[in-house]
What we know:
Helix content is 24%, strand content 34%. With 130 residues, it is an alpha+beta fold. Strand 5 and strand 6 form a beta hairpin. The protein contains three helices and six strands, in the order ααβββαβββ. This is DUF5666 domain-containing protein. Keywords: Signal. Residues 1-23 form the signal peptide.
Amino acid sequence: MTGRGKVAVLAAGMAALALPAMAHHSFAVFFDETRTVSIEGEVTSFRFTNPHGTIALDVTSASGEVEKWRVETTAPVVLQRRRWSRSSLRAGDHVRIDGWPARDGKPYLRLRSATVDGRPVGQAFTVGED
């Protein structure tokens, strides 16, 4: 292999390693750790997937409009340590979510805690916990 070929292989390998790092983002970039928000609504889906799980829910506003919210969780391995499982939330569950809001004002939170019918789901999270 020529010198140029070795450089090309090395560059391709380094680029491949960088992709997972780009997929994982910083808590502080997307969420405001100085505020918390509470929402209540009906779960439409719960994805227990890497790198972060997600909860989708319909929240009815004070004006009666249904807003689509998305809640980002930690990785499944961390959720499991916090006593969550794939069946912790199901479509149709009425849930209250407390979390850190998106910096851009979108209907997007980072999960702090969740309750279904007044019962806590797992254990609460701290700012920036992955």
